[in-house]
């Protein structure tokens, strides 16, 4: 296929070529992958500036997206891809293969750095989903930091560089410029632009950091020469998106169990109990129960109701054979859906993605974390059902963007199964107002506990 770049893609391509340290903060659907591949091809075969490129990506993206995008476009088909994935012997064989781009998943970064040590061979590194390096304490960050001085060119791709707080930005920028713009340490960065927020003075623990006045603008000014940010809504005409909340009613005994867990933080079963001793654990347990099953203290699954399964069955019937992409939250959700619907197929490999995009999968099951970044699923259908909700706004947005993106030819329907009177409602409100995070979770749990206590 001939690649005719849009204006925003020309900007991205030129930015990578002209900046050895480059951050592309482009939201879903703007073609980060093809823009980067175009720049890599030019740098390698026109400018002769790089010879060996490493791409670090989420596992499923590493397995499928980069090779598929390379094969898709006429001008990148000459690029040779070697996938550094799987068992150690396979990874070593892939590294010894002659190629232009070596694609690996981020879990292999530490191994890769240790494997080469000071003989690091990659003069260009592309980090697909830079925000996965947002923790300066993570081993993958520390490993890549060791070899950063040996990297001639680096590109960071993400749509959400700071999904929770601008605190997350420092490690990502450090990998780009080695601390030139935001400081050599996260402590210096934090002390320069932030002030302590909520904290426990007795134990000298700071729970969160608030931006100082004017700090946000200062940070953006500091990084503006090497990072460009573009939003899809400013450049693309995406298909219409229709959101729909489907109310599910928990009947008698099921709702009583939900209320008992909410009120007592303890739900006794015949052979074991379910205990929730923190707000986060309670939220997790309540969301499980809203979906229909729950893990007890022995990690055994206790089935409570089938209301959401029944609602999903109604939706499948109403879709009249149209493929449906279902996002589930827990392993017991997956198992119960597969047990009810024998034609369901879980997203696991690139073959599953290929089958879905050829419309050979009527019911495609995916966890939002496994379909969160980079996967192109828009050819397979236009209907999403959220069987269980997530507190992560980033995962929610990225998962929906698998279908609601450039190349989608139909209206996209996003259905949420909401168990009435449960934590589902609080999560949906938080997602709606884009206020999702630890604080929103805590406030929602507090509100539920107060409400439950008032009903005693």
Keywords:
single chain; 456 residues; Rossmann fold; 2 domains; six-stranded parallel sheet; 18 helices; globular
SS summary, helix count: 18
**Main sheet: which strands, in order across?**
3-4-2-5-6-1-11
> What is the alpha-carbon Rg in Å?
23 Å
Q: What would CATH call the architecture of the largest domain?
A: 3-Layer(aba) Sandwich
Look up the CATH topology of the largest domain. Rossmann fold
- The number of distinct β-strands equals 21
Question: Termini distance?
Answer: 66 Å
Helix amount, in percent?
40-55%
What class do helices, strands and sheet pairing give?
Answer: alpha/beta
Question: Overview of this structure, please?
Answer:
- There is one protein chain.
- This protein is α/β, with parallel strands linked by helices and 456 residues long.
- It has 2 domains: 7-235, 3-Layer(aba) Sandwich (Rossmann fold), CATH 3.40.50; 241-454, Rossmann fold (3-Layer(aba) Sandwich).
- Helices cover 41% and strands 19% of the residues.
- It has helices at residues 7-18, 32-45, 59-72, 88-96, 109-116, 139-147, 169-177, 186-193, 215-223, 232-235, 252-264, 279-291, 307-318, 331-340, 350-357, 393-400, 423-432, 438-454; strands at 21-26, 53-57, 81-84, 101-105, 124-128, 153-158, 194-196, 199-200, 205-206, 209-211, 227-230, 241-248, 266-268, 273-275, 293-295, 301-303, 324-327, 344-346, 363-366, 383-386, 412-419.
- A hairpin with a 5-residue loop joins strand 15 (293-295) and strand 16 (301-303).
- The longest helix is centred in the C-terminal third of the chain and has 17 residues, at 438-454.
- It is globular, with a radius of gyration of 23 Å.
- The mean pLDDT is 88.
């Amino acid at each position: 296929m001939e690649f005719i770049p849009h204006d925003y893609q020309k900007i991205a391509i030129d930015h990578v070529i002209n900046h050895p340290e480059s951050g592309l903060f482009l939201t879903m659907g703007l073609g980060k992958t093809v823009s980067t591949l175009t720049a890599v091809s030019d740098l390698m075969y026109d400018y002769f500036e790089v010879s060996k490129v490493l791409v670090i990506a989420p596992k499923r993206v590493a397995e499928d997206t980069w090779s598929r995008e390379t094969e898709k476009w006429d001008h990148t088909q000459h690029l040779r891809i070697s996938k550094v994935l799987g068992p150690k012997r396979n990874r070593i064989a892939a590294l010894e293969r002659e190629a232009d781009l070596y694609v690996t998943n981020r879990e292999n970064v530490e191994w890769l750095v240790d494997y080469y040590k000071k003989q690091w061979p990659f003069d260009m590194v592309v980090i697909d989903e830079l925000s996965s390096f947002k923790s300066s304490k993570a081993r993958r960050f520390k490993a890549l930091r060791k070899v950063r001085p040996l990297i001639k060119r680096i590109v960071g791709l993400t749509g959400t560089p700071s999904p929770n707080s601008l605190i997350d930005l420092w490690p990502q920028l450090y990998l780009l410029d080695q601390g030139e713009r935001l400081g050599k340490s996260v402590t210096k960065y934090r002390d320069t632009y932030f002030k302590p927020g909520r904290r426990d003075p007795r134990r000298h623990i700071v729970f969160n950091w608030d931006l100082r006045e004017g700090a946000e603008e200062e940070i953006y000014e500091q990084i503006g020469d090497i990072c460009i940010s573009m939003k899809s809504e400013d450049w693309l005409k995406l298909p219409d998106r229709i959101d729909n909340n489907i109310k599910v009613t928990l009947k008698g005994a099921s709702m009583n169990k939900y209320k008992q867990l909410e009120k007592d933080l303890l739900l006794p079963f015949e052979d074991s109990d379910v205990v929730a001793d923190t707000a986060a654990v309670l939220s997790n347990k309540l969301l499980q129960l809203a979906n229909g099953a729950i893990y007890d203290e022995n990690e055994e699954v206790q089935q409570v109701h089938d209301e959401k399964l029944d609602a999903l069955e109604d939706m499948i019937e109403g879709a009249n054979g149209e493929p449906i992409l279902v996002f589930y939250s827990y392993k017991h959700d997956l198992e119960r859906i597969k047990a009810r619907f024998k034609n369901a197929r879980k997203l696991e490999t690139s073959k599953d993605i290929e089958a879905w995009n050829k419309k050979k999968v009527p019911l495609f099951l995916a966890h939002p974390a496994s379909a969160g970044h980079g996967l192109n699923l828009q050819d397979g259908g236009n209907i999403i059902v959220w069987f269980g909700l997530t507190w992560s706004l980033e995962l929610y947005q990225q998962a929906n963007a698998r279908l609601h993106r450039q190349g989608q030819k139909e209206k996209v329907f996003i259905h949420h199964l909401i168990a009435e009177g449960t934590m589902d409602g609080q999560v949906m409100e938080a997602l709606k107002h884009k206020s999702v995070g630890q604080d929103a979770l805590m406030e929602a749990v507090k509100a539920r506990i107060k409400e439950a206590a008032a009903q005693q």
